[in-house]
Amino acid sequence: MPPTLGVGLIGHAFMGAAHSHAWRTAPRFFDLPLAPELTVLVGRDATRVAEAAGTLGWSSTETDWRRLLERDDVDLVDICTPGDTHAEMAIAALEAGKHVLCEKPLANTVAEAEAMAAAAERAAASGVRAMVGFTYRRVPAIAFARQLVADGRLGEIRHVRAQYLQDWIADPAAPMSWRLQKEKAGSGALGDIGAHVVDLTQFITGQLLTGVSALLETFVKKRPLPASHGKLAGVGGEGMGEVTVDDAAVFLGRFTGGALATFEATRFALGRKNAIRIEVNGSAGSLAFDFEDMNVLHFYDGAEPASTAGFRRIVVTEPEHPYVGAWWPAGHGLGYEHGFTHQVVDLVTALAAGEQPTPSFADGLQVQRVLAAVERSAAENSAFTEIRTTAAEGEN
Ligand SMILES: NC(=O)c1ccc[n+]([C@@H]2O[C@H](COP(=O)([O-])OP(=O)(O)OC[C@H]3O[C@@H](n4cnc5c(N)ncnc54)[C@H](O)[C@@H]3O)[C@@H](O)[C@H]2O)c1
Questions:
Q1: pTM to 2 decimals?
Q2: Ligand 1: which of 44, 81, 168, 180 to mutate, most ligand atoms within 8 Å of CB?
Q3: How far apart are CA 314 and CA 77, in angstroms?
Q4: Could you tell me which residues are beta bridge partners of residue 5?
Q5: What spacing in Å lies between the alpha carbon of 252 and ligand 1's midpoint?
Q6: Ligand 1 nearest atom to the CA of residue 178, by list position
Q7: Mean pLDDT by groups of 10 residues along the chain of 396 residues
Q8: Is residue 42 in contact with ligand 1, taking CB distance under 6 Å?
Q9: Does residue 312's CB lie within 6 angstroms of at least one atom of ligand 1?
Q10: For residue 190, what is the DSSP state?
Q11: CB atoms near residue 106 (< 10 Å)
């Protein structure tokens, strides 16, 4: 048996369930160098956390996340709570010598993200590691897209077109939630889903954004207070609350290699549920991806004769595709939850090898700088706003 890795997970709703599934499943399908143990689940309500622990497979519970810092059976703290809690929890865990997996966006402000990246750098000196959960990197078709770019199949990258489209608050009657409050979420569609496409496009191209020009809009400024919470939205009740974040973000950008980019992040695209759409055009080829058809990558090879050239629909389920060999026979597709399982696999593999898992907190900080530049640009009539990046940030 490999050595164990005791995990303490904070927050047992959407991401808590997705991460629990991943910790349970990863060692059952992949040969891991450490054996994750679902040691302790943290929630603030004793009854609810006990129920969740039973459902999700955790062997003990706590009602105060600070208890994780004192427990010798916890080697890694997995943070699945809203952004306003990330900095305090992650820095305390790293200082207590615990590895950290922290959900995205890394923080609510650049200052918090800087403090987190600094804490991660200090901890790394004694072998304690930190990683941010930009999970979609681990979708096989996305990881394969990065390989195609790295192998030169697209040539010089000229255009990056990225959208993250959802519609769960398109209805003005959809209630308030923490995702619509700046003090909880930091920003709206921008940080919640725009952060993913910023990370993904940088991951696929191997390049960083150098500047942006942006528009932000809040279409519905007041919403009913929630009567009950659903998976994302829920049901509205009595009274109204103020939406203090953007509903939609649209921005242009430039990449280090000279490519021009367009980005769109919205939760008002009626009919689009989780459409992460990325198209990249290079001098030698193009690729296109849509998460609503997540097992497929479209690839255009510019070297093919014009008479037969065309976008090829690659079903990314062959054993030679990234991550896929551990799963099912070809064509038996993967789903949303597999990205989280792959995230655990990569994290545990890096920890056992004494290596820095990616994306690091420095990578998370660089994305935070992009989000801040989008907000500054939008506040200044879309003025082109440069993004300062240090060498450690965005190493991918
Ligand atoms: N990687 C992804 O694809 C992805 C997807 C969705 C959400 N996220 C991120 O995951 C994080 C959580 O989002 P979610 O959708 O799971 O939210 P959620 O509202 O479903 O769950 C958050 C949970 O955290 C709990 N919580 C809040 N403060 C706490 C505290 N101090 N101590 C203990 N528990 C606390 C809440 O009670 C709730 O159960 C956010 O940072 C979000 O941006 C990432």
A1: 0.97
A2: 81
A3: 37
A4: 36
A5: 29
A6: 19
A7: 97 98 98 98 98 98 98 98 98 98 98 98 98 98 98 98 97 96 98 98 98 98 90 84 98 98 98 98 98 98 97 98 98 98 98 98 98 98 93 68
A8: yes
A9: no
A10: I
A11: 35
